[in-house]
DNA sequence: TGCTCTATTTGCGCCAGCGCAAAGACGCAC
DNA sequence: GTGCGTCTTTGCGCTGGCGCAAATAGAGCA
């Protein structure tokens, strides 16, 4: 695949390729291919053989897991530069979760074999991979702890702040979470129900912390949310 | 360090070294050192700089995380052949959790630099590492999902079954979980309180599923526990 | 054997959060 | 604009699980 300057920049920005020489980045392009996925469609489903690793170029995707009983849990959201399937593509099993495009997406894709080849050729890539997985792991561990020890309200506040960091866009109302986000989605992110999320958001809206509509949340007072998330003393 | 036949066997059995040639195993020994840690003492504490990677040789250890509020969460238990610190030792940060010896422990230890050297010399080691981390990650993801969607009783049943698989020892009463295990510990493993665990175990004891004492649990009817863990239909 | 320390059990009151059901609001397509 | 489908809100009743407090039971030690 022919690399454009833009795309090289994307790779440079992607954590997996950080700090690699230009030559390596271009080599990686040679063996990548592009994949479009329309909003609502899937990159892959939980249970599919894990053959491909992706880096999102445009759009937003989300990773979710389905329980045997049919409950869904949203693991995380991805934006440009983020990779998905790194971990599993290297360990030849099946995808343990599904990846859905929440907006139209364009992604770069590599076959697992290709990634392994690249890693042998460029040890830095393997090291980056390790480091990345380590970070992801720590992250999940923290969320596990959070889920085990904290109340729903705080978990929801944290989820919103995380999303703001990832996908927030400044507007005159406040920080808009720039992706379709239902109460149900938030429930699946925080291990609660859409009802509880609805009640919590409503209360925050009345307190002026957020503004929200159908599948839309704007954070008006980030500091207020942080106060809830971290349980700081209320300002008088 | 001089390798004994026994110790080579341990390494062969450790997932990280699986499938490696004898020469590599011996090379790994050359650069390892031994560390004893007495019951109740720690290999390392959450927040220490992550410099060392361990493989448990004898005894049992457990990894736990402390929340800012002082709640503890037990992440998992380790036995002979299991490694700890793999992930972090490779990504030069601090340990995100503490490792405590729950019985007297002997472990093999490598400095992070040494591990990286070895991985460059023996690519198979790096690949094993990746695969291992991937497995660990999937595991945690499942537990996260479990915590998000399942009731306490089922989580406790699963925790016991996991422990049985790891540390179970057949006795004439049933499968003994061969490590000191308080109600509090089980609570910290499953995101609940010691009171709730106590009530649940008591009920199971009356139903003949388990026998338990002070820091001791024996599973008398594993299938009964599986029934609870998986919510199979009750046998009539 | 008795003492002490820690783990466990259990009564009790309480409340966060669940989840049904029904009504309301919003966005989209025709 | 009208209608439809989906998302959101909210009343209501319920219950799982929390956590204090106090009693009880083991385990180890002198």
Give the topology string of chain A: H per helix, E per strand: HHEEEEEEHEEHHHEEHHEEH
Instruction: Find the structural class of chain A using helix and strand composition.
Output: alpha+beta
Shape of chain A: globular
Question: Number of DSSP strands of chain A?
Answer: 12
Please give the most extensive interface between any two protein chains, plus how many residues each contributes.
A-B, 38 and 39 residues
How confident overall, as mean pLDDT of chain A?
Answer: 90
Query: What is the share of helical residues of chain A?
Result: 40-55%
The largest β sheet of chain A comes out as: 4 strands, antiparallel
Task: Give a brief rundown of this model.
Two copies of one chain form a homodimer. Chain A has 236 residues and is an alpha+beta fold.
Describe the structure.
- The structure is a homodimer of 236-residue chains.
- With 236 residues, chain A is α+β, with helices and mostly antiparallel strands.
- In chain A, 44% of the residues lie in helices and 23% in strands.
- Chain A has helices at 5-13, 22-30, 86-89, 112-121, 123-149, 152-167, 183-190, 194-206, 222-230; strands at residues 33-37, 42-44, 52-58, 61-66, 72-78, 83-84, 98-101, 105-111, 168-170, 175-177, 210-213, 216-219.
- The first copy, chain A, has a 4-stranded antiparallel β-sheet.
- In chain A, α7 (183-190) packs across α8 (194-206).
- The mean pLDDT of chain A is 90.
- Chain A binds chain B through residues 65, 67, 69, 71, 73, 75, 87-88, 90-91, 93, 96-97, 116, 120, 123, 126-127, 129-131, 133-138, 140-145, 147-149, 191, 231, and chain B through 65, 67, 69, 71, 73, 75, 87-88, 90-91, 93, 96-97, 116, 120, 123, 126-127, 129-131, 133-138, 140-145, 147-150, 191, 231.
- Chain A binds a DNA duplex (30 and 30 nucleotides) through residues 151-153, 182-184, 192-196, 198-199, 201-202, 212-215.
């Amino acid at each position: 695949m022919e690399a454009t300057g833009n795309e090289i920049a994307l790779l440079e920005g992607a954590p997996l390729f950080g700090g690699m020489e230009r030559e390596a980045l271009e080599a990686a392009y040679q063996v990548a291919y592009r994949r479009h996925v329309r909003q609502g469609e899937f990159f892959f489903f939980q249970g599919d053989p894990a053959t491909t690793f992706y880096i999102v170029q445009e759009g937003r995707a989300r990773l979710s897991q389905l329980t045997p009983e049919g409950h869904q849990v949203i693991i995380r959201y991805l934006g440009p530069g983020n990779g998905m399937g790194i971990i599993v593509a290297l360990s030849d099993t099946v995808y343990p979760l599904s990846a859905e495009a929440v907006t139209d997406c364009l992604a770069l894709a590599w076959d697992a074999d290709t990634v392994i080849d690249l890693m042998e050729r460029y040890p830095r890539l393997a090291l980056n991979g390790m480091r990345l997985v380590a970070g992801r792991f720590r992250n999940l561990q923290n969320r596990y702890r959070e889920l085990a020890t904290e109340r729903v309200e705080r978990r929801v506040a944290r989820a919103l702040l995380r999303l703001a960091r990832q996908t927030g866009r400044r507007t005159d109302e406040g920080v808009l979470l720039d992706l379709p986000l239902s109460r149900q989605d938030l429930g699946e992110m925080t291990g609660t129900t859409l009802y509880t999320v609805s009640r919590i958001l409503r209360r925050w809206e009345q307190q002026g912390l957020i503004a929200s509509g159908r599948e839309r949340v704007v954070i008006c007072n980030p500091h207020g949310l942080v106060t809830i998330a971290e349980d700081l003393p209320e300002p008088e």
